[in-house]
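Issue 218. Parser rejects a valid record. Input:
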Amino acid sequence: MLSWLYECVTGALGFESVAAPGPPMVAKPSPPSAAVRAVRIPANGSPPHLVQLHTIDVRFECATGRVRCRIPDMRKYWGADEAWTQRDCTECTVNSHSIPSINGVYYGWKSYAVDHLPLSEHTGFYGDAFIVRSTRERDEHGWWVYGDVPDGFITSFAFNPVLTCLRNG
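Output the parser choked on:
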């Protein structure tokens, strides 16, 4: 929490601090948008499928469920109001899968905006849910890097445990 507060104080205004003595504080640049392939789990019961999302900078949002500064932009599916700000993220790890490219860390995103999105009778989520893959690495500026969800993930035995993790998270 304190590191996020520090980032906001030192980088939110986009210029160097002149109030404090000592070396100037240089604002951290906004993270670049990156395309990431994610699993979309539609609320209407249609089959999960891969979609392309772009990441956005959410450092200065007052949103719940904010675990990272750069996240996939799901506003196209949730809208930009309460459904977007009332989001949650759960981390799930897949180890020892028979297809090594499936192994990795996945993040499940869901909204809990009960008054703004319909409850899906198929998934138990409010609105669509999403699964993205993390590389557990940071880029040259320190921003988290997402990887594409691999082909075959949805039909693999790893999908259901990650979905269960998202439901329980």
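Fixed in the parser; the record now loads. Helices lie at 2-11, 75-78, 82-85, 159-168.
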